[in-house]
Fold this protein.
Amino acid sequence: MIGVWRVSDVRRAEQALLATLPPGTLMQRAAAGLARRCALLLAGTGGVYGAEVLLLVGSGDNGGDALYAGARLARRGARVAAWLLHPQRAHAGGLAALRAAGGRVTDGPGRCVDLVVDGIVGIGGSGGLRAPAAEAVTRATTAASAPGGRPAVVAVDVPSGVAVDTGGVAVDSGGAAAPAVRADVTVTFGCLKPALAVGPAAADAGQVELVDIGLTPWLRGTPAFEVPGHADVARWWPALVPAAEKYTRGVVGVATGSATYPGAAVLSVGGAVAGPTGLIRYAGSAGEQVLARYPSVIATGRVADAGRVQAWVCGSGLGGGDHAAAELRAVLAAPVPVVLDADALTMLVDGTWSEQLRARPAPTVVTPHDREFARLAGGHPGDDRVAAALRLAAWMRATVLLKGDRTVVATPDGRAYVNPTGTPALATGGTGDVLAGLLGSLLAAGLAPEHAALAAAYAHGLAGRRAAAAGPVTAAEVVAALRPVVGELTSAEAARSGD
C-alpha cells in the first residue's frame, strides 16, 4: 500500500533531506519530473516544439518548480510565458533560468494556450484562492488552445486552493466552493498528500503522478492513511486450493430484504455470489425472489433457522419494526463477523443497541453513507473524512466503511485507508446492497475486517467503472460486472504466484 502523508511530516522529511544535498538539488529534481510529465502531455497534442505554455507562478517553492520546469520546456522549443502573481517575490533563480532559456514574463494569457502549469501555492497554502489568483486561473484555463477548447492544466505538487491535509475545499459565505485549480494532471513530489486521495479536493487533482525525489527514507512516523493498489487487493483475495470444498471456502449469511424491498435481498446476495465463499444462506422474506435468481442459495425465513455461517450481512432493505429488530438482535448475538448496512444502521441510531454492539467478541463492520454517518455520529463527516471515520470507529468499536467517491475505511485501533477506485456512477439505488454482500463474503472467507472492506470497495469501484462505460449504471449492472472484475483480480494473483 502507498502511504499518504500530512504536511508537517513532509516538511520534516524535506528539511532532513535538504541537509544532505547541495543547494537547489531538490528543486531541480522536482522540476525535471514536472517538465517530463508536461512534455508527455504535450506529445499527445502536437509535441513540445512550438507549444504555448503558460506558467502561473506564485511566491513560494512551487513557483520555483514551475519556473525551472518551464526553462526545461523552453530549451526543447516550447514558447513559455510566466505570469508572475507576485513579481517582487518570484523565485529569482527559477526566473533567471527561464529567461536564459528563452522564456518570457507576461501579464496574462495569450490568445492561444496549450498547457497551463499551476505553480501558485503548494502544500503551505490554506483556504481557497484569493481574488487575484482566482481571476488568473479563470482567465488562463478559459484561453483557447491551439486545436480548440480548454488548455490542459498541470498542478505542481497539489492543486492550488485545496485543503492539503484533509482533502476539503473551502466554501464562501453562501456555501459554494471557493475557487481552486481543477487540474487534468497533478505532479506530486516525494509522497502522496491527503488532498490527492480523499475528499472533494481529490477530484481537482485529476490524474496523479508521483515523482521520486529521494524523500521516502526520510519520512518518519505514521502516514495519515494508506491507499491500496491492485496487487494488494489481489494478494488479499482468498485463493482456491485443490482441497477446497464449499464449507472450507466459507459460508456467508445474508439477512436482508423484505416484502417491501425484495430487490435489496437479490442485490446483496448478488454481491455475495461474486465473493470467495462456497455457500450462501439467505434469511428473510424475499427467499422466493432470491432463489429465482440464485438457485444455489439455501433460503430460510429467519436468522435463527439459517444454520451455521462464518459471517453475517444484515440490514439492506430489512425495514423496521419488531421482526427487523429481532433479526438484527440475532445477527449481533452470533459469534462471527458482521456487516451492518442501511436499515440496520438506522436501528442503531437511538443508542439502545450500543451495549450489545460494543460488547461483541467478533468484528463488526458498518457501511454508512454520509447521511447515515450523520445520524450515527451526530454530525456530518465534514472536510476531514478520515478523522471523522476514525472517531466513529473508535466510539463504536467497529470498522467503519464510510462510502463516497473515495471510500474511507477506519479501524477501531486508529488505522485508516482510502479506496482509489470509486466513481460517482455508483451513486444510485442498490449499489450499497451489492457492496455489503461482497464484503460479507470476504469476511466469511477469513479476511481481516479492514482488508475485507478495502477489497470489497476496490472491486466494487472497478465494477462501477466497467458498468459506467456502457452508459448510466444500475445496481444490477454492477452485480454483472463484479464477476469479471474479480476474475481479473484473482487471475493476476495466480499469475504472480505461478499457479
Remarks:
- The chain has a mean pLDDT of 94.
- The first helix runs from residue 7 to 18.
- The first strand starts at residue 2 and ends at 4.
